[in-house]
C-alpha cells in the first residue's frame, strides 16, 4: 500500500474511533401531553425557585439552625405500634401531618391518625379525624406509599404487581391505576406540584404519569443499565433524580428530558436519593453502606461520603423545611441522624428488631417515623414533647 493509501486508511480508522466515542442522546417519542407537562414544569419551577431564593434572604423567618440540630440530637422513641401482619415497606406523612400512611408485604396500605403539637411546644394533642382507612391496594406486596405534597386526600401506592395506584384517602376510592411497567415497581414520588407521579421499576425504566388522566407522559428507557430503584424531585420541580442497581444516580432536567449529571461513586446498588431543600445538595445511599452527598453546583462532585451504617442503607431523607439534617435508614436495624452542616452524627435511633425499610420526617415538629420488617411503626420525637397518646387506627370497612 502506498503512502496515500496508508494515510486514507488511518483517517478512516480515526473516524471510526471518534464515532464510537460519541454518545448521542436517546429519545423516546412522547405525546403532546408531555410537551404541555414540560411547559407547565418550567413555569412552575420559575415561581418556586424565586420563592426559595426569597426564603434564603429572609433569615428572620428561619428557626435557628443550632436549635434544629439540638432538637434532632435529642430525639427519643415516642411510641411503637404493630403496623401489619407482615413486614412493612414504607411510610409517608400527609401534607398537614395529620396522618401517616404505611404499606406492607400484605399488599395493604393503612392510614394512621397522628398526634400533633399544639401551641405549647412541650405538649402534644391528638387531632383525631374519624375517616381512617385500610386500602386493599394490591394483589402482591406493596413496595411504596406516598401522600400528595399538596393534598391530604390523595395517596399513591406501588407494588410488585407492576402497577401504581392513586387513592382518595378520605373514602378509600381508587382514582387511577397506572399500568405499563414490565416488572415489579420499587419506589414512587409525586412531583412537588402534585400534578404528576413518577414510578421506578425493575424493568430498568422510570415513568412519569398524569394523575388526573392516568396517562403515561414519559417512559425513560435509557439512563440505567439495571433496575431503577429510587426517584425524587427537586423542590423547585425542574429536576428529577433516579438511582438504580447499576450503582449509578442520575439527575434529569424535566423541562427538556435530558440527563444532566451521572453521579458515579457507589460501588454497589443505589437504593435511595433525595434533594435537599437548599436546592443544591443531593443525597444518595445504597448497598455499600454509605450515604453520599453531592453538590449539584459542581457538576458531579461528591461533597462528602458518610460511612453511615454496618449494613445496607435503604433510604435517606433531608429534613424537609431547612435541610439542616438528614436521616438514613438501614438493614442494621437502626436509623441515624446527621448534621447537614458537617455531616457528623447527631443521633442513632435504636428500637427496631429487623431491617429498617422506610422513613419520613414531619415538617411541623421534626417527628420521624420509621418502619421495619419487624412489622413495627416507630415514632421518634424530641424529648420533652412526649405524651401517652397512641397512634389511632380504625377500619371503616372499605
UniProtKB/TrEMBL annotation:
Q: Name one GO molecular function term.
A: U6 snRNA binding
| CDD domains hit by this protein | WD40
This protein's GO cellular component annotations are: U4/U6 x U5 tri-snRNP complex
Q: Which PROSITE patterns match?
A: WD_REPEATS_1 (PS00678), WD_REPEATS_2 (PS50082), WD_REPEATS_REGION (PS50294)
Q: Which Gene3D superfamilies match?
A: YVTN repeat-like/Quinoprotein amine dehydrogenase
User: Which of UniProt's keywords are assigned here?
Assistant: Repeat, WD repeat
The record lists the organism as Corchorus capsularis (Jute)
WD repeats (start-end): 135-177, 178-219, 221-262, 263-304, 306-348, 349-380
- Protein name in the entry: Uncharacterized protein
Q: Which GO terms describe its biological process?
A: mRNA splicing, via spliceosome
InterPro entries named in the record: WD40/YVTN_repeat-like_dom_sf, WD40_PAC1, WD40_repeat_CS, WD40_repeat_dom_sf, WD40_rpt
Give the source's domain of life in one word.
Eukaryota
Pfam families per the record?
WD40
